[in-house]
Amino acid sequence: MNNHNELNIMAVVIAATVVNYIIRVTPFLMTSWEKVPLAVRRFLTIMPTAALGALIFPGAFTSLTDTGRPWAALGGLGIAALAAHYSKNLIIPVGAAVLVTWGILQIP
Amino acid sequence: MRQNKKPSKKADTTARAENIRDKSPGSGEGNPRDFTRGLKDALPIIFGYFSASIAFGLLARNSSLSLWETQSFSLFTFTGAAQFMALNLINTGVSGPQIVLAYGLLNLRYTLMSAAVAKKVDFTRFIQRLLLAFGVTDENFAVTTSNKGQVSPAYQGAVELGPWIGWNLGTLSGWLFGSILPASLSAAMVASLYALFMALLLPDLKKGMPWILTAASAAGVNTILELFSPLGSGWSFVIAMMSGTILGMILIPATAGTTSDEVEV
Asked: A24 has which bridge partners?
């Protein structure tokens, strides 16, 4: 637990803050998107769909590894998809998924 | 500059009317309704972040970080996965520069996400670019890009500020009281983030098979790389996202995909 006694945590935080900000701000400083090639714009339009796929799998399952029931994520994702199909309000699928996941984790 | 080309006053008025119609409901730099709408859209993220960061605060305290050190991570870097990774590295005794390098690598994906967000926002002032660049995350990037058409800086500000507050309140609560929560409840609350992703993905999936394959291929590649390759989750994610997008560019007709509006057709 005390491995980091010699490590200056605040120095790590400051350096990480700078690195992170540079990564995030660089694309914001581009002012003209009209000059960006069509292929790049297409890439940026399609990318969110791919990103969401990769954000869900396998994270939804591995986040439940500690509970011993990673498959419980199927219940949460299923009800979220169903609720999102019928409602445009994002809080409904999210609330339903938490309830279902919690319910599955409660089953003895 | 564009107005110079308009010859008559009538054309100018029409253009202005169109401009207003184009941009509503998402324009005007300080529109309070946009801000409220942004907060509403971000509500699931705020909820999910609050829950996830309770775990961060608790873990940080267990790794003997002080409250201020813990809180600084959340206040200034605001990066879910990377903060957990940093704790892990701190505990295993990795040196400072290596931790910072790992932080940068894991967060390189934000370059692409920031680019997509920057393209969506109608900036009116330079300072907005500097401020709004700070808070782009996987989740609010997904919410912003799910909007049809452009969004206003006020909207984007709310979509970033709300989750940032949630993430920091959760961190604080986790450090102070995290040990009280039952494990099954905190695990289920983290599930809210994935439910949010699913809810955001569903409209894309309804657009047809090429879109389904785009998401599915990224999901498959990421799962295989994360579970069976020595790459860290940062690289796995970037590779999966790139390969899914490239497949999508091949499968999705070129008429769709210049702006999100056209994709909606």
From this structure: none
**A 27-66 residues with CB < 8 A to B:** 27-30, 33, 38-39, 41-60, 62-64, 66
Q: What is the rounded CA–CA span in Å between residue B46 and residue B35?
A: 15
Q: Which has the higher per-residue pLDDT, B260 or B122? A: B122
B95: left (phi > 0), else alpha (psi -120 to 50), else beta? Answer: beta
Residue-level pLDDT at B16: 40
pTM for this prediction = 0.71
Alpha helices in B24-121, H assignment, sequence order: 32-62, 67-72, 80-91, 96-107, 109-120
In angstroms, the separation between the Cα of residue A101 and the nearest Cα of chain B is 5
The pLDDT confidence band at residue B184, using thresholds 50, 70 and 90, is confident
Q: Which of B140, B242, B156 is nearest to B200 (CA)?
A: B140
Give ipTM to 2 decimals. Answer: 0.84
Question: What are the chain A neighbours of B219 within 8 Å (beta carbons)?
Answer: 53-54, 56-57
- pLDDT beyond 90 at B68: yes
From the centroid of its chain, how far is CA B201? 13
Query: How many Å separate Cα B120 from the centre of its chain?
Result: 13
Do B183 and A49 count as a contact with CB atoms less than 8 A apart?
A: no
Rounded Cα–Cα distance for residues B252 and A42 (Å): 10
Domain ranges, ordered by start, for chain B: 30-201, 207-265
**Pairwise CA distance, residues B188 & B182, whole Å:** 10
